[in-house]
C-alpha cells in the first residue's frame, strides 16, 4: 500500500496513457479481423485480407489521396501567410497590433461548428459552388492561427542581434533572410507546418459543412459509420499511426546526433 | 530617366542621421505588407462569414421561395425555446469532459514533466501519436470497446459500477453505448491531448528548486502541490480547459457515433438544421446562441482565473 501511495502520480499517469492508447490498439487489432456483415465492430477471425488489398474498397483511396493533396496545399497556404503575420507581429511595432492579435486568437476560441456554419452561409449567399476550393479556403483559414502561434513562439526567442551581425558583415536583406533568419525560424515553421497538415488532414466538422459532394478521408470514414465500415479503414489508421511514430522517432535520433556532434 | 538623376543616385551617399532615426515610409509599411494577405484571408473567410450568418439568422422564407432579411428576431427565441435541452446538455457534457480531462490529464502531464527522466520524450510521443490515426477511426473504436458484450462493460457490470451510474442517470441498464456516459467518455478521450500539452508546457517551466525550497520549509508533498505547483501551473490549466471546453461544446461527432437520440448535443442540431432540414435561419440563430454563451463563459472564466496572456 505504501508503494502505491508513493507512486500514485506514476500509476494515475500511466492509466491515463493507457486510456489514450487503447483505441489505437483496438484499431490495430481489428485491421486483422475478418468481419461478418458490414460492420467491423466485433472480433470474428484473424485474416490478412485487408492488408493484402488496402485499396480494395471503392472510393476509399481516392478520398485518401484527396485529403493528402488538400492537407499539402492547406499547409503551404497557411505556412506562407502565417509566417508573414508572425514576423510582422513580433518584429514590428505598429497600430492595430492588439486588434490583429484578437483576430488571430478568435478562430481558435470558437466552436468549430460555428465557423463551419458561418462559412457555409457566406458561400451560399455568394452563390459559390461547394467543393475542393471551398474546403481548401476553409482549411487555410483555420490552420492560419495555429501556424502564427507556433512561428511566433520561435521568432520571439530569436536574438535579433544575429541578423544585425549578418548585416554588419555586408549581407543584403535577402541574404540575411535566407541564410540567417529562415534557418533559425525553421523549427517553429516546421512545427506550424506539421500542425497545419495534421489539422487539415483530420478535420471533419468544417469539411462536412463546406465540401458539397467532395469526399475527403474523414468524410469517407463518417459515411462508412452509417453504411458499413470496411477493414481497410483500420489498415489506413494503423499505417498512419506507425508512420507517425517512425517519423517522430527518426526526428529524435537526428536531433540527438546533432546535439552530440555539436558538443563533441 | 535622365543621366543626371542616375549619377546622383549612383554616387555614394553619406550616411544621414535623420534617415536612421526616422525610417522611410517604405520601411514603415513593411509590417503592413507582411500582414496584408493573411489578414485579408481571415477577414474575408472568418469575420465576413459571421456577418453573413448574422444576416441569415434574421431572414425568413424557404429554400424554394428564397430567403429575405425581415429582421425576424423571433427566430432566436423560438430556436432557444425548442432546443434549450440540447444546449444545456452540450454545456453539461462539455463541462464534465473538461473536468475529467483535467483530473486524468494532470497526473500524466506531471509525470512527464517531473518524473519521467529519460522516458520523457517517449511519453510525449505516446501522447501525440494517437493524433495521427484519424480521430473518427479512433472514435469508432470506442464502439467496440464499449459494446454490450465487451470486456470493459462486463467488468463494469461485475463491479456493479453501472448500477451506480445508472442510478445517476449516466447509463441505462447494463449497457454503456448510446448513453450519456459513452458520449462524455468519447469527448474526454478526444480532447485529452489538448489538455495535457498546455499543462505539460506550464509544468515544465517550473523551477525544480522551488519544490526543494518548499520541502526545506517542511511542506508536505500535498502542501507543496497545493501552494506551489498548482498555482504556478495555472496558465496551463486555463488554456487547457479552454482548448477542451470550447471545441467539446460544439462537437457533434461523439454524440452521433456513441450516443442516441436522447444524447443529442447542440452541434447535432446545428448540423442537421443546416445540412438536412435546410432551415438556415434557425441553424444560424442556434450557432450564434452557442457562440455567445461560449464567449461569455470564456470571458468570465479568464477574468476570474486571472491570466490574460494566453497566446
UniProtKB/TrEMBL annotation, chain A:
Family annotation (InterPro entries): Bact_Polyamine_Transport, MetI-like, MetI-like_sf
Its membrane topology, per UniProt? Multi-pass membrane protein
Q: Which UniProt keywords apply?
A: Cell membrane, Membrane, Transmembrane, Transmembrane helix, Transport
Which Gene3D superfamilies does the record match to this protein?
MetI-like
> Could you tell me which CDD domains the record lists for this protein?
TM_PBP2
Q: Which residues form the ABC transmembrane type-1 domain?
A: 64-254
Q: Can you say where in the cell this protein is located? A: Cell membrane
- Annotated transmembrane regions: 7-32, 70-90, 102-124, 130-151, 177-199, 205-223, 235-254
- Which GO cellular component term is one of those annotated? plasma membrane
* BP-aspect Gene Ontology terms: transmembrane transport
> Could you tell me the superkingdom of the organism this chain comes from?
Bacteria
Note whether Transport occurs among the keywords. Answer: yes
Q: Which family does it belong to?
A: Belongs to the binding-protein-dependent transport system permease family. CysTW subfamily.
UniProt cross-references to PANTHER family, sorted A to Z: PUTRESCINE TRANSPORT SYSTEM PERMEASE PROTEIN POTI
- Give the protein's recorded name: Putrescine transport system permease protein PotI
Q: Which organism is it from?
A: Streptomyces venezuelae (strain ATCC 10712 / CBS 650.69 / DSM 40230 / JCM 4526 / NBRC 13096 / PD 04745)
Query: Source organism lineage?
Result: Bacteria, Bacillati, Actinomycetota, Actinomycetes, Kitasatosporales
